[in-house]
Design goal:
11 strands; single chain; 3-methyladenine DNA Glycosylase, Chain A; 214 residues; two-stranded antiparallel ribbon; mainly beta; globular
Length: 214
């Protein structure tokens, strides 16, 4: 039986009020839902990264509150979307109580519903590459700054939820990708051996290389 929007229950606010690392790991195997008119896109979250506040030098909130990072200090369970590298958006979910910065970057999802639409938004790539990276994900799911601060705990244009039954899985962890500070924190979490994660591993020489899953 194929997955539907109705089979996914939004996660409650209390889910996001916990520590950011705890929330990051708990988001694995949950579902990202994007609704645009009659089009419904659904993906299983398979890779995330946790970002803290003033104690995390890799975080946007490290130097305090700014107009850009304000959602990180707001109510938990909202979208924090920013434009980066001049060419793509990144989707984060806010964590911790109001006033305490924290967010989880959704790095990759496994597409489950709406693949034809995703392929139109990301033409010329395989199913495994539709959303296996934060910029790829937002393009495949038509996510941009217009959805910044959307409440993800309610059914609507964008939310995160869970199905009534969840399969078991193993979690791997590594340093976060693309940062130069805070590399000692293993705050990237992903589902073990999942073919839809962003394809990078850290070599013994501390160099990120593309990994081809078997």
């Amino acid at each position: 039986m194929s997955i539907t929007e109705e089979s996914i229950d939004p996660l409650p606010r209390s889910f996001y009020e916990r520590g950011t690392v705890t929330v990051a790991k708990a988001l694995l195997n949950k579902h990202l839902v994007r609704v645009s008119g009659s089009t419904v896109l659904i993906g299983r979250i398979v890779e995330v990264e946790a970002y803290g506040g003033r104690n995390d030098p890799a975080s946007h909130a490290y130097r305090g509150k700014t107009p850009r990072n304000m959602p990180m200090f707001g109510e938990p369970g909202h979208a924090y979307i920013y434009f980066t590298y001049g060419n793509h958006y990144c989707l984060n979910v806010t964590t911790r109580p109001p006033g305490v910065a924290g967010a989880v970057l959704i790095r990759a999802v496994e597409p489950l519903k709406g693949l034809n639409t995703m392929k139109k938004l990301r033409p010329g790539v395989s199913e495994f590459q539709l959303a296996n990276g934060p910029g790829k994900l937002t393009k495949a799911f038509a996510i941009d700054r217009s959805l910044n601060e959307v409440d993800l705990t309610r059914r609507g244009v964008l939310y995160v939820g869970k199905t009534r039954t969840e399969s078991s899985f193993a979690v791997e962890r590594s340093p976060r990708i693309g940062i130069t500070l805070g590399t000692e924190r293993l705050w990237r979490f992903y589902i073990e051996s999942n073919e839809y994660v962003s394809r990078y591993v850290l070599t013994p020489g501390n160099r990120w290389i593309r990994r081809q899953w078997q």
